[in-house]
Each structure stands twice: as structure tokens, then as C-alpha cells.
Write a structure and sequence with these properties.
Helices cover about 65% and strands about 5% of the residues. It contains 31 helices and 8 strands. The chain binds guanosine-5'-diphosphate and magnesium ion (MG).
């Protein structure tokens, strides 16, 4: 301690938060997690605080102070040989028992200590509280509660360091873990010998520590004292005697005593706080309503309806703004670029496709606001519980449906979440029916179609589509469990977390995360898809025309100028455009496949959309936008896609199309994850075939029955 400099060693278990705390203290940005072992001892940083220069040395994470691992040796050599002025012991408040095991050994090394009771946020979540004042007196050093990730308690820690430095009391704090009588006697004898062999060299704490280490059979200490044959021989005899009288290894005796010390300590200072109990009663009250036998399900349905209604109605405003923005942008670009292929590609391909999809960003964000809110508040787990009740009547268990509900976001992580299901059979079923849960990629299709065909009922229609997705998922689960997947049923315990008011930041983070995902898709697969689609519909340039357009144009142009003549020219140009589109590569491919979908009332454009949706469901809307951008030259109205759709399809077919898109084959990413998680292509084959046929049959049913009624 010179020039008002003080050395502080940071010691604690791995993952106790040392790096985070050290970063918070110094404002540095070391990567949190493990860092390479070699550089460890050099890791010192300086902090200025209240006139002191604090040298902070970040030691590697360790559980104990034996000499078994290099980390442990670095840690203890530093404390033993360099004698830091203060040891800052970082404790993980969430697992204090383990953290304190290291503390019991630090105590014996006898440096002044400060304790950072880190992760108190986690501890409180588990419903515990700590009497820091009495812990502080029992551990002989200030205890400061910290949340390193939020920089809480950081200043208090520095103040505590300075307080010790200012007081000048940098002596060892006498504190001993009390050992068994025989052990204590042995320690005494060995300690005396150590003191005799090293006259005036060590303080009493140090020689006691050395004695303990020697009795524990610590290799490093035995090596250091190797030259004192007498001492080594004495230690060997003491260890032999002890293990004989106690028929236990000496190391175990020490460990037992340390755990006993910790146990006693914690039973005094740690209490389960009353808070969780109160929360429990609130939770019971809420569950009484939300999980009510008869009210529970209707309430769940109401919340879901509210979610989709809001997604549609509130989302409509920003959607219109973005739409208008895209329109202006498109016109501006069209005005700047010279006529020709490049202009067509950019305006009718890329801007139409990307712009046509990006307008759904607000809807996606709103949907995820609700999903995040439900999930963070604890309601999502309840909805699985409600479904569980329904499923029980069919002999299935509802825990398997938590991953299903996650499928509302995206099927890929939801399928990975099925790993939490222990029963093989239930897990396989959850994987296979997951694609039926309507992921958010399909939302734009439904918003577009619902808006085009069912104006003021749009929100409700989207809600019904989603409910249908749950019904189909559950129905298929019953089917699969009866006829396809083998294995026994197992009982589950459903965990119901306490209700919590979701934190704004968590919800916002979630929304931002999803918005980012969506934008990435727009910039990736949708951009590429739109470009490819545009090329496929633009080529080949020359097709086998059914009529001689050139002659007809020439004939019209030869007529005297009149409004009728111009209209006739425009009409003819439109007809030519349509014929070209149908005979382009895109039209040819779609026409080949279209007969399969003809019974459902879908034309070749719908077929194209269905095909592109196999890659990613978001591309469905983009492909409509690209196809319809073709004939849209005359209509400058920005809602043209909706109108064009409405003019080309009747509402019954539109409904059939929505249901088809809901159910038919999973996207490429989902297929890949099904293969991995279900373990084999045969399940992928089954999944695709099953969903395709189901989609076809349902859409056919809707078209047929709906066509008969309307
Ligand atoms: P180290 O191994 O001791 O260096 O621990 P790290 O600093 O790498 O932290 C381990 C993990 O715990 C990281 O994910 C941190 O973000 C997290 N963490 C650290 N301190 C806190 C805290 O006070 N509260 C919570 N909730 N997490 C923390
Ligand atoms: Mg670390």
C-alpha cells in the first residue's frame, strides 16, 4: 500500500459474475464467460475512487483452493504470495451453499475480505432474502448486495474498499472455521512445527492455513515444505491416525466441517421471504378466474380474438403509411429510371415484392407484442394448461402443447423446444403437428386476404384461421397418437409459473428481435424470390401468340384519333400482357401444376404463390405482388394488390386458399428441423404428404360446400 494504491483480488466461482462485476467496476468490456487461463494472473486494472488507486486483479473462477487445477493454483498462489490488500469474494446469491465453500477456505488465508453478494435479483426471484448485516458479522467483512449486470451496488463496493483502505486496518481478520476436536488438535501440532521451522516468517493465520493444507494432503504444500522431512513425516502420521480413528478420509472430514459451517450460517441468515407467498395467493386468485372450468376457455378465446383484432385494426394505420411510402418511392424510381428491362425489374420485381411484404411489419410487431406479453406474464403456460384439459378427454397430455403455442411465432424454435418433452411419443407428435400452428410468416397472407375479401370482419377472420390452426394441430395429434406414432402415454406434471407483470424492456426487446428477423427475411429470401419471379415472368420475350397483335395494333393506330381508339389500344395491350405472362416460364410451370389445384378453384397465379411458399411462407404475398404488378400499370391506386385480388377470386375460394396456406407443407427451414429432431426423412415425407393432403381436402371441402351455399 503505497501512494494510496490498494490491490484487490477478485475471487469467486465460475459464473458468479466476476467478469461482469469487474467490467462494471472498471467500465471495461471483457467478454463475459470463460477467458483463457494463461493471461489470468496479469489481468489487473486500475480504478480511481475517492483519492485511491484501486488495482483490481481478476482471478480465474474456482470452487475450491486445493492445488488440483491450474486455476486453483493461480488463485491461491496469488493470495498466498502476493498478499493482496483485500480479497473481493464474489458470491452467487442464487447458489450460496456452493459459493461459500470457497469462502470457508478464503477465510483461512486470512486477508481482509469484502463480499459481493451478486445476482441478488436471481435470489429474490427464487423467493429468498439474506440478512446481510449478520452475514457480514459472521464472515468478518462487509457484505454488499450487487446485480453486476445492472451495475447495482458497484459504488458501494468501491466505497467499502476505500473505507478499509482509509481505516488502515489491513490486518488479517481473525476468523476460523471450527473443526472437529481431533482435527483441531492435529492442526495445532502441525502449526507449531511449521512456526518452528519458519521462525518469524508467517503470521499465525498463515501457519494455520499451511497446517490445514498439509493435513488435507495438498500436493503443492507438501512440495513446498518437502525439504522439512520431519514435518512431512509428522503430517503423514497425523493423517494416518485421523483417518483411522474416524474411519474417514481427512479431506472428507475437512469438507464436512466446512459444509457444516455453511449450513449453520445459512440457516441463520437466509430466509424465504414472505413475498412469494403473497404472490402465490395472487396467483391462486387469478388462476381461479383464468383457469376456471367453464370460463377459462372462453376467456382464452377472447384474448386471442383481441390479439388478432388489434393486430389487424391497429396495424392498418402504420401499414397504410408504409404502403403510401412504398408507392411514392416506387413512382420516384420509375420516374428516374429510363424505360426498359432494368426499370421493370426494379419497379415491378424488387420494389413490388419487397414493398408488398414490408408493409406487414407493423402487424408482425403487434402480434409479437401480445405474444411476448402473454408469455412473460405467465399466461401462455396457462393456455397450454387449458388445452391440456381438452386433450385429457382424448387421452393426451398438455405439456406437449407449450412448444405448440410457441409455434405461433415460428415453427423452427418451437420444434426445438420439444426437447423438453420426456416422452418419446409425445415429443414426436408435438414435432409433427407443430407446422399446423400458424407461424407469423403466414400472417401477411391472412392480413392481405382478410382485408381484401372480408373487410370489417378481417380481424375475426384472422382469429378464426388461427383457432382453426389449433384445432387442426390438436386433431392431428389425436389422430397420430391413435394410428401413427407408437409408444405408451406418460403422465406429466404441468408447471405453472407465478404471474408477473412483464417488464417493458423485455417485451420491447422481444418485438425488436422479431422485427429484425422479419426485416432480414425481407432483405434475403423475399428480395431474391421477387427477382427470380420477375425474371421467370419476363422471359422468354417472344412467345407463340394466339393472335397477331402487331397487325391488330397497326389496324387500330391507322384509325382516326378518338377516345374509343385509345381505349381499344390499351385493352389490346392488356390482353397481350396477360397472354405473355401466361406463356412465360413462370406461367408455363404454374400451368403444368395448376390442374392439381383446379378443383379447389385456384388459378395458375395462386398455384405460383403456393409453390413459392414452399421456400418461405413470406414469399407468398411477394409473388402476388410481382405477378399483379404486371397488369397494374393503369391503376395508380396504392391498394391495387387488394383490389386486383378481389377482382380475380371470389370470397369462398379466398377462404379455401387461406386454409390451404395455413395447412400445406412446412417451409424449407421447418423441414430441415423436423428431419433433425424427429430423426429421419421418413417423418419429413410423412409430414409433407400428410399436410398436403389435409390442406387439399379441407380447401376442396370449403370450395365445394361454400360454392353450393353462396
Ligand atoms: P464469471 O465466470 O464469474 O466471470 O461470470 P460472468 O461475469 O461471465 O457471468 C456469468 C453470467 O451471469 C453472465 O451471463 C452474466 O450476464 C450473468 N450475471 C452476472 N451478474 C449477474 C447478476 O447480478 N444478475 C444476473 N441476473 N445475472 C448476472
Ligand atoms: Mg469470467
Amino acid at each position: 500500500m503505497t501512494n494510496k494504491t490498494i490491490t484487490v483480488a477478485l475471487v469467486g466461482n465460475p459464473n458468479a459474475g466476476k467478469t461482469t462485476l469487474s467490467n462494471a467496476l472498471t467500465g471495461a468490456k471483457d467478454s463475459v464467460g470463460n477467458y483463457p487461463r494463461v493471461t489470468v494472473s496479469k489481468r489487473a486494472r486500475e480504478i480511481q475512487h475517492k483519492g485511491w488507486t484501486i488495482k483490481l486483479v481478476d482471478l480465474p473462477g474456482i470452487y475450491s483452493l486445493t492445488s488440483q487445477s491450474p486455476e486453483e493454483r493461480i488463485g491461491r498462489d496469488f493470495i498466498q504470495d502476493e498478499r493482496p490488500d483485500i480479497v473481493l469474494n464474489v458470491l452467487d446469491a442464487g447458489s450460496l451453499d456452493r459459493s461459500l465453500f470457497l469462502t470457508t477456505q478464503l477465510i483461512e488465508m486470512g486477508r481482509p475480505r469484502i463480499y459481493a453478494l451478486n445476482m441478488v435479483d436471481e435470489m429474490r426471484k427464487k423467493g429468498y432474502s439474506i440478512d446481510t448485516a449478520s452475514l457480514s458479522s459472521m464472515l468478518a467483512g462487509p457484505v454488499i448486495e450487487t446485480v453486476a449486470t445492472k451495475k447495482q451496488g458497484v459504488t458501494e463496493l468501491l466505497d467499502a474498499v476505500v473505507a478499509i483502505a482509509d481505516s488502515g486496518q489491513l490486518d488479517d481478520k481473525p476468523l476460523q472455521v471450527p473443526y472437529d476436536g481431533h482435527l483441531e488438535d492435529a492442526i495445532d501440532r502441525v502449526q507449531k512445527t511449521v512456526a518452528e521451522l519458519h521462525p518469524g516468517e508467517f503470521e499465525s493465520v498463515q501457519s494455520r492455513w499451511m497446517a490445514i493444507k498439509l493435513l488435507e494432503g495438498d500436493d503443492e504444500m507438501l512440495r513446498r515444505e518437502g525439504e522439512h522431512g520431519l514435518l512431512i513425516e509428522m503430517v503423514r502420521r497425523e493423517r494416518f491416525d485421523l483417518s483411522h480413528t474416524h474411519s474417514d478420509e481427512v479431506e472428507i472430514m475437512f469438507a464436512d466441517a466446512r459444509y457444516g459451517f455453511i449450513h449453520g450460517l445459512l440457516s441463520e441468515v437466509r430466509t424465504r421471504s414472505l413475498d412469494p407467498e403473497r404472490r402465490l395467493s395472487q396467483t391462486r386468485l387469478l388462476d381461479g378466474v383464468l383457469l376456471h372450468r367453464t370460463l377459462g376457455l372462453p376467456l382464452f378465446l377472447f384474448f386471442m380474438w383481441l390479439m388478432f383484432e388489434t393486430t389487424f385494426t391497429v396495424g392498418a394505420y402504420p401499414m397504410d403509411w408504409i404502403d403510401a411510402g412504398v408507392g411514392v418511392f416506387s413512382e420516384t424510381v420509375a420516374g428516374i429510371l429510363p424505360d426498359g428491362m432494368v426499370k421493370d425489374l426494379i419497379v415491378d420485381g424488387i420494389i413490388a415484392g419487397v414493398g408488398g411484404t414490408i408493409i406487414f411489419l407493423p402487424n408482425i410487431v403487434i402480434l409479437f407484442f401480445f405474444l411476448a406479453f402473454f408469455s412473460e406474464s405467465g399466461y401462455l403456460a396457462r393456455s397450454a394448461f387449458l388445452l391440456d384439459r381438452v386433450m385429457h378427454t382424448f387421452g393426451l397430455h398438455g405439456k406437449a402443447f407449450i412448444p405448440l403455442i410457441m409455434g405461433f411465432g415460428c415453427n423452427v424454435p418451437a420444434i426445438m423446444a420439444t426437447r423438453t418433452i420426456e416422452s418419446e411419443k409425445a415429443r414426436l407428435i408435438a414435432i409433427l403437428v407443430n407446422p399446423f400452428m400458424c407461424c407469423s410468416a403466414r400472417l401477411p397472407v391472412f392480413i392481405l386476404f382478410a382485408g381484401a375479401f372480408f373487410a370489417q370482419w378481417a380481424g375475426t377472420i384472422v382469429f378464426m384461421i388461427y383457432m382453426l390452426s389449433i384445432v387442426i394441430a390438436l386433431g392431428s395429434a389425436i389422430f397420430l397418437s391413435k394410428y401413427v406414432v407408437r409408444g405408451g402415454d406418460e403422465a406429466f406434471v404441468m408447471e405453472l409459473p407465478p404471474y408477473r407483470m412483464p417488464s417493458l424492456s423485455a417485451v420491447l426487446y422481444h418485438m425488436w428481435d422479431k422485427a429484425k428477423d422479419f426485416l432480414k427475411k425481407v432483405a434475403g429470401v423475399i428480395l431474391v424470390g421477387s427477382t427470380v419471379l420477375w425474371f421467370m415472368q419476363a422471359f422468354p420475350k417472344e412467345v407463340a401468340w394466339s393472335v397477331d397483335y402487331d397487325t391488330q395494333f397497326a389496324a387500330l393506330e391507322a384509325q382516326a384519333e378518338s377516345a374509343e381508339r385509345d381505349a381499344a389500344i390499351a385493352k389490346l395491350a392488356n390482353e397481350q400482357g396477360r397472354e405473355h405472362l401466361e406463356k412465360s416460364y413462370l406461367g408455363t410451370v404454374a400451368h403444368t401444376v395448376a390442374p392439381i389445384f383446379a378443383p379447389l378453384g385456384f388459378d395458375w397465379r395462386d398455384t405460383t404463390a403456393i409453390l413459392t411458399g414452399l421456400v418461405a411462407k413470406e414469399v407468398v404475398v411477394a409473388s402476388y405482388a410481382v405477378i399483379y404488378a404486371q397488369g397494374a400499370e393503369e391503376t395508380e391506386e396504392s391498394n391495387s394488390l387488394r383490389e386486383a385480388l378481389a377482382a380475380n377470386m371470389n370470397p369462398v375460394v379466398a377462404l379455401a386458399f387461406m386454409v390451404f396456406i395455413l395447412i400445406y407443407a412446412p417451409c424449407v427451414a421447418t423441414i430441415a428441423v423436423i428431419r433433425r429432431e424427429a430423426g429421419g426423412w421418413h417423418w419429413v415425407g410423412f409430414s409433407v404428404a400428410f399436410s398436403m393432403s389435409l390442406a387439399w381436402l379441407l380447401a376442396f371441402g370449403i370450395t365445394t360446400i361454400g360454392g353450393a351455399i353462396v
